[in-house]
Amino acid sequence: MSYLFRTTKFSRYVSFQLENGLTLLELLIAIAISSILLFSSVVSYRWILEKNQLILYANTLISAMHYARTLAIESKIPVILAPKDQNWQNGLIITDFNQKKLFRVYSPMKKPFQLIWHGSLNANEYIQWQPDGFTFGQMGSFLICNTQDSRQSVKIIILRTGRIRSDIENNIGCAS
After folding, report:
1. Domain range holding 124?
2. 18 domain-assigned
């Protein structure tokens, strides 16, 4: 909005007259600024959604491992966390040692996320918790990676004592 100053020959004072509307240049600048803000927020919104999805998958995996460990301690039987259909990408299952009783099934991670297990002593088939809460001599780490963004990754570490910890890191080697 701008004000026009106008004087008449009959009056010696300045009168203010309000001008309504926008010029074409002002309108184009406003559209350009709002479109830049809109597109930059859409990109950052997608990144935030993927980061939250990564944290959700990490928390689900950690809770599954805590559940398996607690189940082994409370029921006093060995409990196994294993990949569904021998592939960690197909989801997880929690069973007893003889695989006669299925306690829980977890759905697979959706793309672009990938679950990778690096176990000690080539123990890639499953993780077993003993009734005392320790693993069966196993230790290793799960990597949850976003295959489209190397900045988004989580490392979940399992110790021989059965304890679990997680690290949100950048570039933790998810290319394998």
Report:
1. 23-169
2. no
